[in-house]
Amino acid sequence: MDDLKLEIAAFAARLVVEEGLEYGPAKRRALKQIGSPGRSALPDNALLESAVEDYIAIFCADTQPSELQALRELALEWMERLAQFRPHVSGAVWQGSATRRSDIYLQLFCDDPKSAEIALIDSGVQFSARSVPGLHGEMVDALSVHALCRSLGEHVGVHLLVYDLDDVRGALQPDARGRRPRGDAAALRQLLHDANHD
Q: How sure is the predictor about 134, in pLDDT bands with cuts at 50, 70 and 90?
């Protein structure tokens, strides 16, 4: 294993956990702060995910489980609220590596892409809209909300990525480690249930 990739992964893992950065920006910032040439090969997401798990086990083992539970409960609250749009949770909240610095990512699969936006407006929810790369690199609408997480006593970013209904089939393919990259409300409820009965 390339020592530079391990060093970048370890540095990026701290940025992911402590500052809530996404993997891509964390890797690029780590590369810059280590002072490596801009063309250095970056660690893949699997290596970074492993480094994040190690960082949490060493530095956050006493606080992370309750923070993860709080974020999963808030994600479920929003999924129930947006049930008509077939929401799926992904990212650190789904995979189990989220801390209080992590945002929540929900993917909505809609018959009409504008319907989610209209539903937020109708319920008086303030949000900002932008375009981000989607599941297959295509640009999709992202509706971002600041939601109060009562258990953490602070606001958390909830990002709603809006897809066509047809995209749901491809979204559930397992990743390289055989895990589902996202889950629906029933799957998230099961994770919360399992955590409470460990």
A: confident
Do residues 195 and 65 touch, judged by C-beta distance below 8 A? yes
Q: Which residues pair with 130 in a beta bridge?
A: 142
Report the candidate in 196, 48, 56, 76 with the shortest Cα–Cα distance to residue 147: 76
Report the amino acid identity of residue 195.
A
CA 49 to chain centre: 12
For 60, what's the count of Cα atoms within 13 Å in the CB-facing half-sphere?
21
In one letter, which amino acid is 103?
Answer: D
For 161-183, the pLDDT digits (tens) are 999 887 776 666 666 667 788 99
Domains of the chain, CATH where assigned = 3-59 (no CATH), 64-196 (3.30.460)
d(CA 135, CA 19) in angstroms, rounded, equals 24
Kind of pairing between the strands at 182-183 and 88-90: antiparallel
Distance of alpha carbon 109 from alpha carbon 84, whole angstroms: 9
Q: Are strands 104-110 and 154-164 parallel, antiparallel or unpaired?
A: parallel
Using one digit for the tens of pLDDT, what is the confidence trace for 59-78? 999 999 999 999 999 999 99
**Pairing state between β 182-183 and 154-164:** unpaired
